[in-house]
Specification:
Length: about 375
């Protein structure tokens, strides 16, 4: 189950809530995140989550009155470590493996180059799925544009490593079909000499070594990338689009749904977080300010409270209620628009606005009850 959406809409919380519900229902569930904010640990009541599987202690659940029949695990996906695993798996021998891991171009490739980190994360997700330790894996993704990178990374990398443009750099005779050398091979004197003037010969040598050694992994990359893409498109994988109820975020969520749907990916539900409820009815909103002030004065005398200006307080309360009422009306309109543009069979689950952020298991349980009630 992959939770996707723009930044700040509650994907991390939603991922943890889904995981908690599954654990309470008796499943062995893993919640993992590639969100650099690392807020999942706070929500689960633990200090930190690392790149190794970590079980959430059962006593933490019992402290908030929950008795899960299953197990809940958490994990942070470390991009560099995930890519190192790929090298260790696909390198033809230990010498090549070390050459790659110690190469400075590899360090840039595995930590900074656009798309490679997302590919490594999708590879790790695939490995965890293949190990078959869990009934459910819930993935918390980065904000929308990066999440799209995550979903598209396997296909993009598979296409890249099989492209003639990349092979031209290191494969002999790739363009002409005759024996020759790649453009960065030793002996391609003009190109090498020209580049060396700007970068230095040592850097060119290191790039040449990187391409030569790293190209030994390309067949494995391509094969696994196709497998990862197949898993993401299979019936075993479902997507939950998480959004807030404001107009711009809803439009982004609908755009994201269109992208997922066009790629034949399974969108199972929408979750709308922080929906403003209508706290009072219309009749209460229409009451005169002096009527509320009189009731406040009466209440103040009954509870022997410190004196406050009842008229000023009534004015502030009515203005506050009006602002919340406007937000509630706007939220309802956004959700109605979402329902109009989505298939009628698409579930749209709403979680209300809470008066504070969720940073604990008890908070997660409150959100869980709202989401799954």
């Amino acid at each position: 189950m992959i939770c996707v959406g723009s930044g700040g809409v509650g994907k991390t919380t939603t991922s943890a809530v889904i995981g908690l519900q599954a654990a309470l229902a008796g499943m062995r569930v893993l919640v993992l995140t590639i969100d650099p904010a690392r807020r999942l640990a706070n929500s689960l009541g633990i200090d930190a989550i690392g790149s190794e599987l970590q079980q959430i202690p059962l006593e933490l659940f019992q402290e908030v009155g929950l008795e899960p029949e299953g197990e809940m695990w958490a994990m942070m996906l470390d991009m560099k470590e995930s890519f190192d695993r790929i090298v260790e798996r696909d390198a033809p021998d230990e010498e090549t493996q070390q050459e790659i891991l110690e190469n400075r171009f590899y360090h840039y490739f595995s930590t900074s180059l656009a798309g490679t980190q997302e590919y490594a994360a999708s590879e790790r997700l695939y490995d965890l799925h293949e190990e078959d330790q869990f009934d459910l894996i819930v993935l918390d993704t980065p904000p929308t544009t990066h999440a799209l990178d995550f979903l598209e990374a396997p296909k993009r990398l598979a296409d890249a490593v099989s492209s003639r443009a990349l092979q031209w750099l290191y494969k002999p005779g790739i363009l002409s079909g005759t024996p020759g050398r790649g453009i960065l091979s030793v002996g391609t004197s003009y190109v090498t000499r020209t580049l060396s003037k700007f970068t230095g010969g040592e850097l060119i040598d290191e790039l040449r070594v990187f391409l030569r050694t790293f190209s030994t992994l390309f067949d494995g990359f391509e094969e696994r990338a196709r497998s990862v893409q197949k898993l993401l498109c299979s019936d075993e994988t479902g997507f939950v689009v998480v959004t807030a109820p404001d107009t711009l975020t809803v439009e982004e969520a609908l755009y994201f749904y269109d992208q997922l749907d066009s790629d034949a990916l399974n969108v199972d539900a929408f979750v709308v977080n922080r929906v403003h409820p209508k706290w009072v009815d219309e009749a209460a909103m229409e009451r005169a300010e002096y009527t509320l002030a009189g009731e406040l004065e009466s209440l103040q005398s009954r509870v022997d409270a410190e004196f406050v200006d009842a008229n000023e307080l009534a004015e502030g309360l009515l203005e506050n209620a009006l602002q919340f009422q406007l937000r509630a009306t706007q939220d309802a309109g956004s959700i109605e628009k979402m329902g109009d543009e989505l298939p009628s069979s698409m579930p749209i689950a709403c979680v209300p606005y809470f008066n504070q952020d969720i940073h604990s298991l008890s908070g997660l349980d409150t959100a869980r009850q709202e989401l799954f009630s």
